[in-house]
Specification:
By secondary structure, this protein is α/β, with parallel strands linked by helices. It has one domain: Rossmann fold. 22% of the residues lie in helices and 24% in strands.
C-alpha cells in the first residue's frame, strides 16, 4: 500500500533550548546535534497557520552511513505537559529516555501541545511529520506514532485521520477513544496498553475500541496490565513496544 503524502510548502524556524538565543532559519541541512534532543519551532502558512514547538532527536550514529534512512516516531505527550515550555517534555515518557539513550534506533519528534488543546489539530501534526521526512533521512514506510493518556488518544485520532501514513500505533492509557474510529483503524497495526486499575481513563473504553476494530475485520493487539493504574510511562524505558514497532512496515 502506498503511503499517503502530505504536500507542504512552509517556512520553518529553529530555536535553541535557551531563551536568550534567537531563532535561526531551520534549513534542510541543519540536522542539529546527534544523540541529543534539539528544541525547534515549526511555523507554516500551508493550508492553515501552524506554530508548533517540538523536540527532535537524531541518534548519535545517524551519520555513520550517510545513505541510511531511519524509522521515525511521532511522540505525543499527556495532558500534564501542555503549555508553552517545550523543555518540560524532557521530564517524562520517551523524551525522558532520550536524555540518556543517545543511540536509540529511531528519529523521534515530540511536539508540545498548547494549553487547553487535546491533540485534535491533525493537520498541524501531519505537517510536522512531513517536515521531518523532508529534512532528515526518514524511511517513509516506517513512520510510527505513540502517546500516553491524552497523547494515547491523540495517537489513535491521528491514525484515524491518516490511516495510510503510519506503519504502526502504540497507545498507552488512551483517554476516551471513540469506537467510530474503528473502521479506519482496522488496517493499521495497533497496540493498546492499559492498566486494569486505571481510574483516570477506564480500561473498558480501550476494550470497547478493540472490540469495535475486531468487528470491523481488524486485528489490534491489546494488553491489560492487571496490577497497573494510569501511570505506565515507564514502559517507554523498556524495548518491547519499540521492538514490535520495528517489525511493522507499510
Amino acid at each position: 500500500m502506498r503511503c499517503a503524502t502530505f504536500t507542504v510548502a512552509v517556512a520553518f524556524l529553529c530555536s535553541t533550548a535557551t531563551a536568550e538565543s534567537p531563532p535561526v532559519i531551520d534549513r534542510p541541512t541543519a540536522a542539529g546535534p546527534l544523540g541529543e534532543q534539539t528544541a525547534k519551532v515549526l511555523e507554516s502558512e500551508s493550508r492553515q497557520a501552524v506554530r508548533l514547538s517540538y523536540l527532535l532527536f537524531l541518534p548519535s550514529n545517524y551519520d555513520e552511513n550517510g545513505q541510511q534512512h531511519w524509522p521515525l516516531i511521532l511522540y505525543l505527550h499527556g495532558g500534564s505537559l501542555r503549555g508553552d515550555d517545550v523543555e518540560r517534555l524532557r521530564t517524562l515518557g520517551l523524551p525522558h529516555r532520550l536524555q540518556q539513550d543517545r543511540q536509540f534506533p529511531f528519529v523521534v519528534v515530540a511536539p508540545l501541545c498548547p494549553e487547553s488543546e487535546i491533540w485534535t489539530d491533525a493537520d498541524a501534526l501531519a505537517q510536522l511529520v512531513e517536515h521531518v521526512i523532508r529534512t532528515d533521512r526518514i524511511d517513509e514506510k516506517r513512520v510510527y506514532v505513540t502517546g500516553h493518556s491524552m497523547g494515547g488518544r491523540g495517537a489513535l485520532y491521528l491514525a484515524y485521520k491518516y490511516p495510510e501514513r503510519f506503519a504502526a500505533v502504540v497507545a498507552m492509557s488512551p483517554l476516551s477513544p471513540i469506537t467510530v474510529w474503528a473502521k479506519k483503524l482496522r488496517n493499521v497495526p495497533l497496540w493498546i496498553i492499559h492498566g486494569a486499575k486505571d481510574t483516570a481513563a477506564p480500561v473498558k473504553d480501550s476494550q470497547e475500541l478493540v472490540d469495535a476494530i475486531e468487528q470491523s475485520g481488524g486485528h489490534p493487539r491489546f494488553t491489560s496490565l492487571a496490577d497497573r493504574d494510569h501511570f505506565i510511562l515507564d514502559l517507554y524505558d523498556k524495548n518491547d513496544v519499540f521492538d514490535w514497532m520495528a517489525k511493522q512496515t507499510r
